[in-house]
Design goal:
Layout: H1 2-41, H2 44-52, E1 61-62, E2 68-72, E3 75-80, E4 94-102, E5 107-113, E6 120-130, E7 133-144, E8 147-160, E9 163-175, E10 189-194, E11 198-203
Parallel strand pairs: 1-6
Antiparallel strand pairs: 2-4, 2-11, 3-10, 4-5, 5-6, 6-7, 7-8, 8-9, 9-10, 9-11
């Protein structure tokens, strides 16, 4: 009887061991997929620059599902590596739309207004995080007449019911070669935040219609976006 009991306990221990190994293996693979996706969007040296400016990156391979259209206002400058930036400058109020999240490959679709342009569409996007904390990484093309620039835009926050609290936005220029003099220079970065600390959800999103959906038109006090030069 004791021999059978020891054998049963041994089998349970082995099953637990193999289950743990499988879990660790899956997490390692997930981390690899996520890392590669992020590096395709923002090179590590630029991510390090944002970290030095106190942008909070929420790491992890189990981000919450973030979906909807959100109003970011008042949208205020927090930190910057641009010496001419005035403290607490208020940027244009912004609109953020998130949908189509897939936690198998850490993709998410992002549309916006007045982060970089009147209308912003991410070329490539990823999401990381755990619990209710998340960070979204996007690479976007800004068109200014016939000129254009490529920026990385990061958004961090904590899901709080239907809203987002403590939202930060980080922007860093990756390629200014086709818009010199109109946008901030390569490696220059700004961190802004929703200064009332609650980013309210203003609409739900239908994934099937979202590719043609644009956030609603609104008025803002400022006409300067995060990647433009402030005089």
């Amino acid at each position: 009887m004791k021999k059978k009991l020891r054998l049963l306990i041994g089998c349970i221990v082995l099953l637990g061991f193999f289950a743990a190994c499988d879990k660790d293996g899956n997490e390692i693979e997930d981390e690899k997929i996520l890392t590669e996706r992020i590096e395709d969007i923002i090179p590590k040296q630029y991510l390090d620059t944002l970290n030095k400016l106190n942008f909070k990156v929420n790491q992890g391979v189990k981000p919450p599902i973030v979906k909807g259209t959100f109003s970011v206002k008042p949208h205020v400058l927090d930190t910057s590596n641009i010496s001419t930036d005035p403290p607490a400058y208020r940027f244009s109020d912004a609109i953020l739309t998130l949908y189509g999240q897939n936690n198998n490959d850490f993709s998410i679709k992002m549309l916006g207004e007045h982060f970089l342009n009147d209308r912003d569409t991410s070329i490539a996007t990823a999401i990381s995080g755990s619990g209710n904390d998340f960070t979204i990484y996007g690479k976007a093309k800004s068109n200014i007449g016939t000129a254009y620039a490529i920026s990385a835009i990061l958004i961090s926050g904590t899901l709080d019911g239907e809203n987002i609290k403590n939202l930060q936005t980080g922007i860093i220029m990756i390629d200014d070669s086709h818009a010199t003099g109109l946008v901030i220079k390569n490696g220059q970065a700004r961190i802004a935040f929703d200064s009332d600390f609650i980013t309210e959800k203003i609409a739900d999103v239908d994934d099937n219609k979202a590719n043609t959906k644009r956030a609603s038109t609104h008025k803002s006090k400022s006409t300067v976006s995060l990647n433009q030069i402030i005089d």
